[in-house]
Amino acid sequence: MSIKLIKVIQDNMLTSRLTGKWVWCSSRSPPHTLSSRQCQTVSESPSSGSTGREAEEGNGAPPTQDEIRPFGEIPGPRSLPIIGTLYHYLPVIGQYTFSRLHHTGLLKLKQFGPIVRERLVGDVTLLLLFDPRDIETMYSTEGRYPMRRSHTALEKYRLDRPHMYNTGGLLPTNGQKWWDIRRRAQKVLSRVQSVLTRLPHINKVTRDFNDLIDSVRCPQTGLISNFLDLERRLFLELTMVATVDVRLGCINRSSLNIVNKDAEDLLHAAHASNSCIIHTDNGLQLWRIALKYVEAKEEELRKRVDRRERGVDEDNDRPLSVLEYFILESGLDKKDILGVVCDTLLAGIDTGAFTMSYVLHNLATNPDKQELLAAEARTLLARSGGEVTSRVLSEARYLKAVLKETYRLRPVSIVVVTQNQVSCRLPEYFPDPDKFLPERWLKKENINPFLVLPFGHGPRACIGRRTAEQNLYTAVLQLVGRYNIGWLGRELDCYSNLINEPDASLEFTFLPRAAAGGVQYS
């Protein structure tokens, strides 16, 4: 049965991403076959009127009233009173699992087709979208203030502490309050120049990380077991440098043996809240550490302004850090700045570490692709004296293709409504979908842009995208340029937590590379 969405009334929030009441229409075509859609997707919104897309099949005409069915008739797993569909997720008797939502999503696609309705429990109703055209329609109709239902425990934690926070922050807040924070914060976090000023510091951190690898790897085999712990330390250091201009020193060899309380507390707070957000009501103490750095930076800025007024500021030409931009130019007060800094730490550590885990795994298990990237790294870094510069990043085509292909195969974020993780493994959209082929992003292939959305889309897209990409690109380029990376672990999949997490210990080997030449692309 082919299905399409039509937005007919701007009213209540039905799912975490969709506002309004939705209906669906069906046409006579083979069941559960994505390529046999007979209906176009159309939407209607108060601001734009009716819009439509010509159907790939059929005459593209809007559906008749007889074709339109109520929202409640969208197919999906059977829901019971009170417990909803939770019984489907029980061990032994259940057919689904919360720990592998990408496997669960694929099963639902096969059972019910490319649009699935699921009343999970209580008033929580999910609408699962697998077709990129429907995903595009969803984003095109979400309006100026897209609703988001997530991090509700984090929101409660912050709203219960009005002496520390004005709102729940960027992640759980909705409506005008969310936009008031977002529009001010993105002036800083989305500004190209403020992100690029951190690049020399990011280079220094990644070089220190490479030195740490050299000191802890097995001299004979190059093996480092449980590499994820080191990756978390790297991205904590990168996030702190990029955001608050502070080196914690948690990727020095000595830091592995000496307790660095700030580093350990930040790692624990960020990981605990991302892994088990429901427990953060009583346990999250991230603000205590972040506040110390915000207040220290305020005091430093006060002294710097005073020195400048007296004409004795030796750092007058030093570029402002991201936190300094926040304090001086964003228009946010200290409580809102604290919330944004905490959100950045929550978003930057595990997402960066998990993404790099999958990037390195893909390269280690596809050595021919790794060699192409290593050659590109050597060529570009040789021209820049070993530094990752803005020009290096702009010319690193294969690096970006490697990241894009990793996002396709192992997206870090779980978007429950848009089932990108399932759709990106379907042959309808990607030839050889299970193969790691960065080259598909270098060719002029017709890939729907709504299939791979690692940073989201629209007004609620990741506000820290520029910083996150700069950190990842720099770390991967420096690492692959210096080491030949191997894999000794078992087959790697992911657990579905708040962020997709590697489900096995990361057993990488790192062997120093010899100098070599560059690479050419056709």
UniProtKB/TrEMBL annotation:
Transport keyword on record? no
Region described as Disordered: spans on this chain? 29-73
Offer an example of a GO molecular function term for this protein.
Answer: iron ion binding
Q: Does the keyword Protease apply?
A: no
* Gene3D superfamilies named in the record: Cytochrome P450 (1.10.630.10)
Matching SUPFAM superfamilies = Cytochrome P450
Keywords in alphabetical order, please. Answer: Heme, Iron, Metal-binding, Monooxygenase, Oxidoreductase
Tell me which PROSITE patterns the record gives.
CYTOCHROME_P450 (PS00086)
Residue spans with biased composition (Polar residues)? 29-51
Question: Which positions in this protein are listed as binding heme?
Answer: 462
Query: Which cofactor(s) does the record list?
Result: heme
The entry sums up its family as follows:
Belongs to the cytochrome P450 family.
Q: What is this protein called?
A: Cytochrome P450 302a1-like
